[in-house]
Design brief:
With 234 residues, this protein is of the alpha/beta class. The protein is built from eight helices and nine strands. Helix 5 runs parallel beside helix 8. The N and C termini lie close together (7 Å). It has two domains: 1-16 and 64-104 and 152-234, 3-Layer(aba) Sandwich (Rossmann fold); 19-62 and 109-148, 2-Layer Sandwich (SIR2/SIRT2 'Small Domain'), CATH 3.30.1600. The chain has a six-stranded parallel sheet with strand order 3-2-1-7-8-9, with helices on both faces. Strands 5-4-6 form a three-stranded antiparallel sheet, with helices on one face. Helix content is 26%, strand content 19%. Helix 6 links the parallel strand 2 and strand 3 (100-102).
């Protein structure tokens, strides 16, 4: 069975109604990135940061996976699929994908403020726990913080993702500007003989020595087209 890796970004979930961070109407227009997505911002105002991610969690209760998510999950019928996502939502999981690497953390999880990547302190929240409060503590006694990789922090899962990208027969990019590193750098680890597809309604500038098959459509329509193309690849 061929190995297939999907790299998904904000455009993957935009069709589900999840606002992107960048671009017109993006979340950064209302919340300066340095205040809600950096360790310094959290240290300065943990109440604001906690509120911001509470809002992100509550939004998840109102949205559903789109057809693009479901078609990615359906690829598992014919391929050995790994989803590497820059998104912090749980829509790939809810659509049925079984192997997902979250590069930038997960909105539905919280962790220790002191030791955020220690598995002992990472906690999955149930929907009735989505409103985290100041005073809610991790197992080490520190304030619960979002299990999110903020700007300026290392991306622990990138090495894990690279091990799958290096073995991929097919590499699919969906809904990402390819401007955010280290995620964008994953393209450099794709084997020369692998097939590469890029799905995005906007023009995406990539720097690759390999040929990339571009499908200039949104996630759902793009995955519909790609599913037909992959019939000959399985």
């Amino acid at each position: 069975m061929k190995k297939l890796v999907v790299l998904s970004g904000a455009g993957m979930s935009a069709e589900s109604g999840i606002r992107t961070f960048r671009g017109a109407g993006g979340l950064w227009e209302n919340y300066p990135v340095e205040k809600v997505a950096t360790p310094e911002g959290y240290a300065a105002n943990p109440e604001l940061v906690t509120k911001f991610y509470n809002e992100r969690r509550m939004q998840l209760l109102k949205v559903k996976p789109n057809q693009g998510h479901y078609l990615v999950a359906k690829l598992e019928r014919n391929f050995d699929v790994t989803v590497v996502t820059q998104n912090i939502d749980d829509l790939h999981e809810r659509a049925g994908s079984s192997h997902i690497i979250h590069l930038h953390g997960e909105a539905t999880k919280v962790t220790s403020s002191k030791d955020p990547n220690n598995p002992k302190y990472i906690k999955q929240l149930s929907p009735d726990e989505y409103e985290v409060k100041i005073g809610d503590l991790a197992a080490d006694g520190t304030q619960l913080r979002p299990f999110i990789v903020w700007f300026g922090e290392p991306v622990p899962e990138i090495e894990h993702a690279i091990t799958f990208v290096e073995k991929a027969d097919i590499f699919i990019i969906i809904g990402t500007s390819m401007n955010v590193y280290p995620a964008a750098g994953l393209l450099n680890y794709v084997r020369d003989e692998a097939a590469i597809y890029l799905i995005d309604p906007n023009e995406v500038h990539t720097y690759s020595r390999q040929k990339i098959h571009v499908i200039q459509k949104g996630a759902s329509d793009g995955m519909e087209e790609l599913t037909k193309l992959l019939e000959i690849e399985k």
